[in-house]
TrEMBL record, chains A, B:
This is HTH gntR-type domain-containing protein. Pfam families: FCD (PF07729), GntR (PF00392). Transmembrane segments: none annotated. PANTHER family: GNTR FAMILY REGULATORY PROTEIN, TRANSCRIPTIONAL REGULATOR, GNTR FAMILY.
DNA sequence: GAATGTCAGATTGTCGGACAATCTTACATC
DNA sequence: GATGTAAGATTGTCCGACAATCTGACATTC
């Protein structure tokens, strides 16, 4: 309620629609620390399970302990880290059950978005097209697997945006964040992202043809495939970790 | 991922299934402060828009400012309060757009739950029945409107539990929390909750008959009615506030 | 008279230090 | 082998302090 504590402020006092494109960074230190931690987690610099010590992070980042604490609390509510009372927070470790749940949940949200396609606002439909174009463009440009993941997940978020519901989009973004964590942990080993640009183009084609049931069925298959791929990679990663453990 | 920082811990070290029913309150001071604030908000003690000053709350609750800050951060992430940079946090004020979004979003989640009825686990189905029974029981017992709201919303959460997805349930609980806030603000004026026990019984009957499409259609109507009722009450409340403002 | 500059008060954002409570680990004891 | 004890580390909570920022009132300038 009373949403939008966002940056851009359209103040009614300033009459002319001037001063567009001017923005000031209103981010707090806590936000920047949280951003840095997220980046490190997504980039695989922080392996899953790694403890995030408050004092160490504070001195390392040049901020105070309360600031780090607040940032860690953010990560915890986002599901990127877990807090065990009196034991501190550590990077969350994706387990198969979590991945399965993530995929089931996002199927519900993305399916809702696809169903809304006919009634969706033109702007939302256009956003689906542009995010897909950005994805395929990145694929053709031979972008790194991290950027490909970004673009890929952005497309799936844009599907939920078809519902026009900010809260559903927020929920999807939360799911995608956790998924990104899982992917980051997986891709520390297999440093590649599937090229699924064609697959997604096919999905969009079905939508453009107003074939909603077809798009739904397509989405079900696509997400099932994705789930299977992630689980397989996760399994492979667990095996390697186990063999590394016994070898030691 | 690696969920459950919950209270009950099933430790594999203790062999006999003894010590059941023994629990220790592991809640932190922050949690208790947050609980108290939620209660005050839901009970209408704190009107929407009321600023939540850190120092005042700290001295009033007998805790330190950092503790209050952390609790307020929790409320903000839950959507029960909003933080404006350098201006502090205040109780969120439900506006019509938010209510519409909440209803649209929960329709997606609850509809997903209803669709899952045939494949849902027996325990989940049983939970729907028990929460409905608790609701109707409370209605017959002439419970207060607060308890009725609790039971009513619990039923709608139980519908999402049919999906078997913890994350979807968490999302629904978040939506319901915001809805509770809106209802609390509305009911400061009209201190009554609709008796919708019969309506919900009808929904369950459709499910028991495995008439999923019927249940879906029923749910759409029911949620549309609920949305309309809340919006009307909200409108009425806004009018009273306006007239009170001009009268002063 | 409207826009702008300035100041004081209030509140938050961030910091540093401090201490108690708790967990872990290792060691000692029965 | 189970239990008790001590040390070290880490978190949970608190206090005090200061800078940054917002608000509002007042003075200034054109």
């Amino acid at each position: 309620m009373t949403a939008s504590r966002t940056s851009t402020q359209d103040d009614p006092r300033v009459d002319p629609p001037l001063y567009a494109g001017l923005t000031v960074d209103h981010s707090s230190t806590v936000d920047r620390v949280a951003d840095e931690l997220r980046r490190a987690v997504f980039d695989g610099e922080l392996e899953s399970g790694t403890p995030l010590r408050e004092v160490a992070l504070a001195s390392s980042l040049g901020v105070s302990r309360p600031t780090v604490r607040e940032a860690l609390a953010l990560l915890v509510t986002e599901g990127l880290a877990v807090r065990e009372p009196h034991r501190g927070v550590s990077v969350a470790s994706p387990d198969p059950d979590s991945v399965r749940d993530l995929c089931r949940a996002r199927l519900v949200l993305e399916d809702a978005g696809v169903r809304h396609w006919p009634q969706a606002e033109a702007a939302a439909r256009e956003r689906v097209r542009t995010t897909l174009a950005a994805y395929t463009g990145a694929v053709r440009a031979g972008a790194g697997y991290r950027e490909l993941n970004e673009r890929h997940l952005a497309f799936h978020v844009s599907l939920v945006e078809l519902t026009g519901s900010p809260r559903l989009v927020a929920a999807q973004e939360s799911l995608v964040r956790e998924l990104r964590l899982a992917l980051a942990q997986v891709e520390r080993i297999r440093r590649n992202a599937h090229d699924q640009a064609d697959t997604h183009a096919e999905l969009l084609a079905l939508l453009e043809a107003d074939d909603v049931p077809g798009a739904q069925a397509f989405l079900v298959r696509h997400l099932a495939d994705a789930e299977e791929a992630i689980l397989a990679a996760l399994d492979l990663r667990a095996e390697e970790a186990a063999s590394a453990g016994t070898a030691r």
